[in-house]
Amino acid sequence: MNPPSNALVVLLVGLLLLAGCGKSEEAETTGDPGEITFELDEVGDAGVAGVRATLIYETPEKTTITVDGLDEGEPAGGGANPVLLRSGTCDEPKDIVFELEKLSGPTSETTVELALTALLNGDYNIQVGLPDRPDDVVACGDVPQEVAES
Question: Which of 63, 100, 108, 66 is nearest to 84 (CA)?
């Protein structure tokens, strides 16, 4: 795959910075063009911390979503935790948009046919469930619409 052109990257970063309206959480750029990252919050007393999602621009129609930071030593780790991209918010989740790759070790990486700008301008959340009870969510993060340069 060819890297995005400089003009496209400048346009994308500009769109990311202008996308700030609506959600209270804020994402940060990773320092790599077309990449942003944000934290997923612990749900209930799941005993997880440091779970992050990274959204990576691939093409105008595709985004790679990486979720990492859930270690096997944590109470909710130790298995192939299911990861979902859903519409709505963590407080009011709606339909499953994509079933992402289950965590393999501490990482899940999936390329979806959804533009990065659509993710940032819509109401979406990313959920991580328990390996044996996928409906029991241990971490969740609303996809932010505000992006701060790191």
Answer: 100
Mean pLDDT of the chain: 81
Separation of alpha carbons 2 and 58, rounded Å: 10
Q: Which domains does the chain have, with CATH numbers?
A: 6-148 (2.60.40)
Instruction: Kindly report, residue by residue over 24-45, the tens digit of the pLDDT.
Output: 356 788 888 899 999 999 998 8
- Which element (helix H / strand E) includes 28? strand 26-29
- Edge-first strand listing for the sheet containing 62-68: 107-112, 62-68, 52-59, 35-39, 26-29, 146-148
| pLDDT for 6 | 46
SS3 133: coil
Kindly state the greatest CA–CA separation across the chain.
Answer: 46
Q: When comparing pLDDT for 76 and 104, which is higher?
A: 104
Query: What are the φ and ψ backbone dihedral angles of 21, each rounded to 5 degrees?
Result: -160, 140
Q: Half-sphere exposure of residue 9, counting CA atoms within 13 Å on the CB side?
A: 13
In this predicted structure, what is the pLDDT of residue 76?
65
- Asked whether the beta carbons of 102 and 108 are under 8 A apart, the reply is yes
